[in-house]
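Students often ask why we bother encoding 3D structure as a string. The short answer is that it lets us treat folding as translation between two languages. Here is a chain of 207 residues written in the first language.
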Amino acid sequence: MPSRLTRFGFAAFAALVATVSVLGLAAPAQAHNYLVASTPAAGSVLTELPPEFSVTTNDVLLNIGGNGAGFALQVKDAAGLYYGDGCVAIDGPSISTAAALGAPGTYTIVWQVISTDGHTVSDRFDFTWKPTAGDAKVSKGSTTAPDCHGTLKPNSSTQPDSSSPTTPAVSEETLSTVLWIGGAVLVVGVAVVVTLLVTSRKKKRVE
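And here it is in the second language, the structure alphabet:
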């Protein structure tokens, strides 16, 4: 039958293993970029056309080769018409494209980026276009996705799929909680091991 020291030793070891597993799983999840800001904001009502539409993530994006491959920022209206030229500028954690919209109504922005860890991350959000009276900045939509003057292939696998689910992302608050719990378990485990070792040595001296 295992001694009390052995049982506590196994318990401490299990706690340490659990902590390492938690920390190991948290790190890769945090590596995926996630949306922190956008212009326009999701669900907002836009009354004036900004110079550009943009999406900002929590970390620097991976622009391999500097040619923007795998990045996209598309704007569509409720009828499925596209707006803008499809050209995407990448700047650190953000991507942007020249703003263009048609008639008032609901629009959808579909975006795709290459995360810091090399994985593709994409999502979509809606906003409402409600220009003030007399706004002349109205563009004509297109039934085909814009290709940035022939430099992109919108129908290729590198372009965003608006029907795909959002890539899961761990928020900073969630990660902090996970790491705090993991650290607490680690400290307790170490303390148990040290206490048992000290107790064991004292018993041996007494004997």
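Translate back mentally: The CA atoms of residues 34 and 169 lie 6 Å apart. Keep this in mind for the problem set.
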